[in-house]
Amino acid sequence: MFLDLVEQCVEDDFESVVKASSIEEAKDKLMERMFDAILVDIDLSDGNGAEIIKYIKDWKPCDNDGTPIIVMSGLINEQFEKKFKDKFAGILAKPFKPGDLQAKLLIALGKTKRRKAADLNLTSDKPTVSAERPLVEEKTQSKAPDKKIQIKFQEEEISLDIFDPEVNAPFKIENLGKRVDSILKKKIQQNTKLKELFKKITVNRDDPYMMNHIGLLINITTGISKQMDWGSEQTLEKFILASYLHDISLGDNTKLAKINSKKEIEDATDLSTEEKKLVELHSLASKTLIENKREIPQDVHTIIEQHHELPNGRGFPNGIDHKRITPLSSIFIVSHLLADYIISDPNWSADKFVMKYKTLQKGPHFRKVLSV
What we know:
Blueprint: H1 2-10, E1 18-20, H2 23-30, E2 37-41, E3 43-44, E4 47-48, H3 50-59, E5 69-73, H4 78-84, E6 90-93, H5 98-111, E7 120-123, E8 147-153, E9 156-162, H6 176-190, H7 194-199, H8 209-227, H9 233-245, H10 254-257, H11 262-267, H12 273-290, H13 298-306, H14 327-344, H15 350-356, H16 364-370
Parallel strand pairs: 1-7, 2-5, 2-7, 5-6
Antiparallel strand pairs: 3-4, 8-9
Helix pairs in contact: 1-5, 2-3, 5-12, 8-9, 8-14, 9-13, 12-13, 13-14, 14-16
């Protein structure tokens, strides 16, 4: 069953498979070629998968010591993840969802600088897999910070470049810009690791889409939640973080960020297979990037994972319906579609938006959001 799950996760994304069902077989395979990523099941029948990892580091077979490694085990707990999160490209506790593995691979391959063999080696106690072709094209990203936030952490002054989107429309919300600044400063002061997350947010200097999109999202989610009497500072904080971070795995690729449906992905003739896969999985990848950041509420993880789902079950990546979409995600999903609708149509109106997205009128949460 485990082998079947792994094969289903990777077979559509890679052209070849290299199998290793034992430690010795894995060592032999590693001596034959350089891989782009390696998946290691720690729970091997003939020993501990850590032996393979040590072999790679000590002997550097075919330069695979620089290959990102994702480890899998049924014994992984929170302490294990905290201890080893910086040593591996990904850590997966078994059992896991197919999308979780795909997201880990997506991020690992996106970060690596190497593109020679483009293979993936998976090692398990049952026959496993390896592959050709990276999921993500590496590209130069431009940053254009609008302002700096100065914070003090353990007597040290820290300067953080952040983007400053307009948050003044379409809802008129008093002092929203100041509240956004205050919340970001507070969150980053509580955990300076968030600084690294915000450094990953990149924009194209020649395309204002991303900042317009984020600014509108903050305004619309806040405006709707206030109308629904959910306008607490805690809720605003969640929507601010989700607005900034939901597309973080896409970098500054606005072409991909503008895609909002599975049909758009399927019909996009100008996208490569890798780009289509990235769009399809970017919400999972973005959620994975913010995991283990203790100052980011769990609701934000859920919002980011669900921000392309739809109440009729025709969204992506998981295709869940309104019964499994949370109330806060419902607000964010409607706001996300409305933000892009406003950007694309200068003559937009709320009535035209509701007519265009009649399919959103499904389930109590979505109906309530659209009635605001």
